[in-house]
């Protein structure tokens, strides 16, 4: 064997030795990382010791803690934050949740609850609903909220959006158009046929909206009529159900024959 062949074989052997040593170091490193991970996961010093719930009014803190399912021996280091937040958001009253670590052993759950737009009254009970139409709190107390009264049979599931177009339209009116046009709406009545009527505060004339069709145009007509005090003072009711021909009925004068 010539000198070049001997040198080549030595280089091959050296390269093979380096590859074997590199592989061994990689294996040892992986074993070390694995043992470190197990130690962190099982260490009592790095377990969850306290869960602090913030931002709740309707939601009970113990309800949140029960929902997230964190036990005393859960690892503080390896908590699945996004999964825990998702569990909290399954509660009917919760719109969003943010989960974060504090000092070792402490976990913070910040809850952002749903905000009511109206009290929905049905034949089976009452519910607070948010701007998306989600019924999240069963109650008959308005507490200053406008009321949506449904005269038709209406199935409602707490924690889910109400699947009824006229009711969703009523929520849109309260959330969007009432603030925009400053309409003093106290209650929206949805009749059995799905027609809507806006009952105003302080005995002011109601506004018949009709169906949900052409809602933006109907609300513009309502705002135009409501901007005329002489009409509001004299009207028994306003009717914009035919958007091209809005009308109003004068009040009957007392003592008229």
What does this structure look like?
- The protein is an alpha/beta fold and 257 residues long.
- Helices cover 35% and strands 26% of the residues.
- It has six helices and 13 strands.
- The strands form two sheets. Strands 8-6-5-4-7-9-10-11-12-13 form a ten-stranded mixed β-sheet. A three-stranded mixed β-sheet has the order 1-3-2.
- A hairpin with a 5-residue loop joins strand 9 and strand 10 (196-200).
- It starts with a helix and ends in a 7-residue tail after the last strand.
- Mean pLDDT is 87; it is low at 31-41.
Oligomer status: single chain
Give the helices and strands as they follow along the chain: HEHHEEEEEEEHEEEHHEE
Bulk shape? elongated
Largest sheet: number of strands, sense, barrel closure: 10 strands, mixed
Q: What's the rounded overall pLDDT mean?
A: 87
Strand order of the largest sheet: 8-6-5-4-7-9-10-11-12-13
Defining key terms:
single chain, 257 residues, alpha/beta, ten-stranded mixed sheet, three-stranded mixed sheet, 13 strands, 35% helix, elongated
Give a nutshell description of this structure.
The protein has 257 residues and is an alpha/beta fold.
Provide the fold topology.
Elements: H1 3-42, E1 50-54, H2 61-68, H3 81-88, E2 94-101, E3 106-113, E4 118-122, E5 125-129, E6 134-138, E7 146-150, E8 160-161, H4 165-181, E9 185-190, E10 196-200, E11 207-210, H5 215-226, H6 229-234, E12 235-239, E13 247-250
Parallel strand pairs: 1-3, 4-7, 7-9, 11-12
Antiparallel strand pairs: 2-3, 4-5, 5-6, 6-8, 9-10, 10-11, 12-13
Helix pairs in contact: 4-5
């Amino acid at each position: 064997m010539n000198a070049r062949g001997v040198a080549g074989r030595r280089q091959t052997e050296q390269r093979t030795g380096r590859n074997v040593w590199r592989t061994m170091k990689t294996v040892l490193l992986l074993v070390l990382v694995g043992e470190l991970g197990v130690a962190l996961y099982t260490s009592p010093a790095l377990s969850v010791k306290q869960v602090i719930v913030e931002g709740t009014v309707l939601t009970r803190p113990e309800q949140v803690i029960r929902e997230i399912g964190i036990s005393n021996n859960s690892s503080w280091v390896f908590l699945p934050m996004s999964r825990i937040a998702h569990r909290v958001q399954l509660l009917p009253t919760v719109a969003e949740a943010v989960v974060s670590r504090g000092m070792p052993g402490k976990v913070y759950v910040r809850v952002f609850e749903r905000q009511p737009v109206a009290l929905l009254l049905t034949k089976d009970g009452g519910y607070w609903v948010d701007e998306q139409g989600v019924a999240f709190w069963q109650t008959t107390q308005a507490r200053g909220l406008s009321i949506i009264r449904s005269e038709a049979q209406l199935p409602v599931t707490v924690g889910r959006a109400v699947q009824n177009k006229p009711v969703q339209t009523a929520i849109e009116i309260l959330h969007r158009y009432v603030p925009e046009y400053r309409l003093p709406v106290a209650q929206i009545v949805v009749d059995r046929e799905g027609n809507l009527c806006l009952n105003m505060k302080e005995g002011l004339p109601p506004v018949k909206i009709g169906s949900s069709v052409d809602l933006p145009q109907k609300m513009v007509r309502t705002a135009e009529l409501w901007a005329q005090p002489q009409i509001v003072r004299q009207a028994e009711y306003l009717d914009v159900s035919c958007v091209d021909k809005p009308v109003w009925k004068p009040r009957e004068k007392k003592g008229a024959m």
